[in-house]
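From: lab user (bench 3)
To: helpdesk
Subject: output format question, protein + pyridoxal-5'-phosphate

Hello, I'm new to running complex predictions and I'm not sure whether the block I got back is the full result or only part of it. Here's what I submitted:
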Amino acid sequence: MTVDTAIDRVFNFSAGPAVLPVPVLEEAQRDLLSLPGCGASILEISHRSKQFIDILDTTEQRLRDLIGIPPNYRVVFLQGGSRLQFSMVPMNLLRGSDKPADYVICGSWGNHALKQAKLEGDTRVAWDGKETNYDRLPVLGDLGLDATSAYVHVTSNETIQGIQFAEDPPECDATFVCDASSDFMHRPIDVSRYGLIYACAQKNAGPAGVTIVIIREDLLDRGQDTLPGYVNYKSHVDAKSLYNTPPTFGVYIVGLVAKWLSEDVGGLAKMHQRNRDKAKLLYDLLDASPGFYRSHAQPGCRSLMNVTFRLPSEELESAFISEAATHQLTDLKGHRSVGGIRASIYNAMPVQGVQALREFMIDFRDRHAS
Ligand SMILES: *Cc1c(COP(=O)(O)O)cnc(C)c1O
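Helpdesk reply: Thanks, we reran it on our side. This is the complete output you should expect:
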């Protein structure tokens, strides 16, 4: 069965947990009773078994190959979601530092991250897009960011507002920490531009329950020995993600997603092209429908992952969402802070789903535009 013939599946535009590639679900289903050569399920085996250690090692290696993670970066698989990273980052990198941390606030998640950092040390707001309701992004290179901060926190894709940096941070003396929760592995990145990248899996990389952290080795020295064990990155790096029982099923699925990206899709450059093509189908239509559809994000910072837009009235927005569901197009309601519609079109959303949404949007517009 391929994506095309998975006819009893809806096109699920949920922001997260979100759509996963059908071949990943099929492989997980096929091997759920017994992993090949194992005789037991991934859900039943010890995290210290040879079989699981193989899965852990393979998953890390697939991520390293796919993303191009340099040897001086370590990869760990944690729990607690990105919310725990909002605290773990400043606990490790800010506590005890004589420098403040800079936060670039582009939307809801950046604000949540800053709030947690304030509990751990001095912070500065390097930029805040609040004035225009987070519909645009700064040029990071223009913010004068440098090594006077402990680190600079950025959110590569603001999932709620639907705005996204199209490029990596500039080469400079600042240590960038990136919340890549909702666009991890959607395009090739230069990992060396970052000190630390974190991503909960349930948007673009796997199921809820596992969070991937990529950290440059020298930053591990900043974590103080007085930190609680679980929140010290060193604990996880030293124990190779087996400090405590890791989210074994989540790690396994992330490994299958990475395999899908490299073998089925053909790598992150190809994935990026697919994502650009998909997003263009929707943004072109929004731009071609003035007076009816209104894109929240300004051109130049529009997310390839979460397309946010308004209709002329809240009544029409409600009608749009419920009618769409009858066409197997689900989970299109925008977050309450932005309102309107949010179509999350992550890596695993097939182009057919985006085309179906586009056709529905044209039809809906033509029936309701005055
Ligand atoms: C979803 C999301 C989070 C929160 O993730 P949890 O796993 O629920 O803690 C943080 N940042 C971004 C950008 C997100 O999209």
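A quick orientation on your result: The pocket of pyridoxal-5'-phosphate is lined by residues 16, 81-83, 109, 155, 159, 179, 181-182, 200, 203 (CB under 6 Å). Let us know if anything else is unclear.
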